[in-house]
Design goal:
The complex is a heterodimer of chains A (217) and B (283). Chain A is built from 6 helices and no strands. By secondary structure, chain A is mostly helical. Chain A has a single domain, classed as Up-down Bundle (Methane Monooxygenase Hydroxylase, Chain G, domain 1). The N and C termini of chain A lie far apart (40 Å). Chain B has a domain of 194 residues: Rossmann fold (3-Layer(aba) Sandwich). Chain B contains 11 helices and 10 strands. In chain B, strands 6-7-8-3-9-10 form a 6-stranded mixed sheet, with helices on both faces. In chain B, strands 2-1-4-5 form a 4-stranded antiparallel sheet, covered by helices on one side. At the A-B interface, helix 3 of A face helix 9 and helix 11 of B.
């Protein structure tokens, strides 16, 4: 096997490690919000540091490959896509941490009333991440497009949430503090889904060579 | 070929090309001018051995077209047809059409000396003549034009300036060309080629025998020369092809496997064979 292929295999494995860590962090985050678990929130904050380190190492490896081997065609697209996906993964780690910090404010509140279906929203988000990682490993462009469709569902839930919050604040103004934190959680989940959609767009570029970022339709 | 989708509207394609449908598929839509060179159904033989098979390609004017491919794929052979230099060797023959500005170079009306003035060539190894720097550049001028000594001096300086060599050799014009460094010798050959005001410059691996610094100078030079000339370059260095060319043709076993904009070839080639070659998986 060519040296460059070996190096590409190495960064492929490195990417899988980051993906697994990010996926585990998201699962923890979902549990943490549902159970309002402070200890899990603490773990997520620590995971974020780990993801940051992995992101830097991954970027260094990609830059090394670009400098030493001057890859072209599919190899070039693979490295460029990974560089960008790596950045999105790190942002997903950051946003999970932001959600975990909201749990510190909410965990001792009684009768937390979510103005949106968090379980549904987070389960779509997790399925998006799994699908996009799967699409990258199996080079399945159809799966990558499916992820983009699911992002629209998340956007719809997030948008609907604002109407519910408005009504709740009118009828129960004492819940404003709680609502602000819950709106934050919805917003962060929506942004995580956006990053996963970015990942899918990069996978489509990697497979097809076509940049669909600004003209998805 | 895969680039059929890039066909230009037929109306703006020159009449002589419209007559031959085989010439059309490689005519790019963004080119508003006719191709400088149009190769149609070119076959080439070394004795019994067929080295080129049915090559079709259009060379855009004032652009750099790179030819890449593994050793023995026919890159240099293809290039050597454009000025019929292969005819200097026994048992070599070409079939098909090569149109320079719409005129077939194999036509009996073609003046071979004039063809070689129009289509200059620079080889892999610098080939200065065993004479002074000045005479190296003046040689072709004297051969092609009846001009005065002072006019020759002006044209020699102009060619050396265009070849980005003047500042380095202006005080040593009477010294032997062979005394220059490898990179300078290659630029001297470029100056010699462009002094006679060719229209097409063929470069056969022009930087393979010189160091990286001299290579960069030649690449800069190629970039500036395309304002005035049409350049076709054969190179083994794929990064070089990616850096300096506008179009790239990938040759394999005497056939043109893929021809497209360089950016497309090096980021998303249409053919698997091209992908395998440029990513180093074979060749």
């Amino acid at each position: 096997m060519l040296r460059m292929q070996k190096e590409l295999d190495k960064i492929r494995k490195r990417f899988l490690n980051i993906s697994v860590t990010v996926e585990e962090t998201l699962q923890k985050m979902i549990r943490c919000v549902i159970e309002m678990d402070r200890e899990l929130a603490q773990e997520i904050i620590m995971d974020e540091d780990k993801i940051d380190k992995m992101e830097v190492e991954m970027e260094e490896e990609c830059l090394k490959l670009l400098a030493l081997y001057q890859p072209v065609a599919a190899d070039l697209r693979f490295i460029i896509a990974l560089l960008k996906i790596n950045n999105d993964m790190e942002r997903i780690g950051d946003l999970s941490e932001h959600i975990a910090r909201r749990v510190f404010f909410l965990h001792d509140k009684k009768d937390i009333d979510f103005p949106f279906d968090f379980k549904k929203m987070s389960s779509i988000m997790l399925s998006m991440l799994k699908k996009s990682i799967d699409a990258l490993i199996t080079l399945d462009i159809e799966k990558a497009y499916e992820v983009l469709e699911e992002d629209d569902k998340i956007d719809a839930i997030h948008k609907q949430m604002f109407y519910t919050v408005e009504e709740t604040i009118k009828t129960s103004p004492e819940k404003i503090g709680m609502m602000i934190n819950l709106v934050g959680i919805s917003r962060y989940v929506e942004r995580i889904a956006d990053h996963i959609a970015n990942i899918s767009e990069d996978i489509i570029y990697m497979i097809d060579g076509e940049i669909i970022r600004h003209n998805r339709n | 070929m895969s680039v059929v989708s890039l066909l230009h509207s037929k109306a703006s394609i020159p009449e002589e090309l419209q007559k031959n449908e085989a010439c059309l598929p490689l005519y790019y839509e963004h080119l508003n001018t006719p191709p400088k060179v149009s190769v149609c159904g070119l076959d080439f033989f070394y004795g019994e051995h067929q080295a080129l098979l049915d090559n079709d390609i259009d060379i855009a004017p004032n652009k750099v077209t790179a030819i890449i491919g593994p050793s023995g794929c026919g890159k240099s052979t293809h290039l050597r047809v454009y000025n019929r230099i292969f005819e200097l060797y026994k048992d070599q023959k070409a079939k098909g059409k090569v149109l320079l500005d719409g005129e077939n170079i194999f036509s009996s009306k073609i003046n071979i000396l004039e063809l070689r003035r129009k289509v200059g060539m620079i080889f892999q190894k610098p080939t200065p003549f065993p004479m002074s720097v000045f005479e190296n550049v003046a040689y072709g001028l004297k051969l092609h034009y009846a001009i005065s000594k002072s006019e020759i001096s002006i044209k020699v300086e102009e060619a050396l300036r265009r070849a980005a060599l003047w500042d380095e050799v202006k005080d040593m014009l009477s010294k032997p060309g062979m005394a220059l460094s490898g990179g300078q010798q290659q630029r001297l050959c470029v100056a010699r080629a462009i002094a006679v005001e060719p229209e097409v410059l063929l470069m056969d691996e022009p930087t393979s025998a010189i160091d990286p610094v001299a290579t960069l100078k030649i690449e800069e030079l190629i970039d500036s020369l395309k304002q005035k000339f049409t350049i076709v370059i054969v190179t083994h260095n794929m990064q070089q092809a990616a850096r300096i060319s506008d179009f790239t043709a990938f040759f394999y076993k005497g056939k043109i496997v893929e021809f497209d904009k360089t950016k497309k070839i090096f980021t998303n080639p249409a053919q698997k064979k091209t992908e395998e070659y440029i990513t180093g998986r074979f060749g």
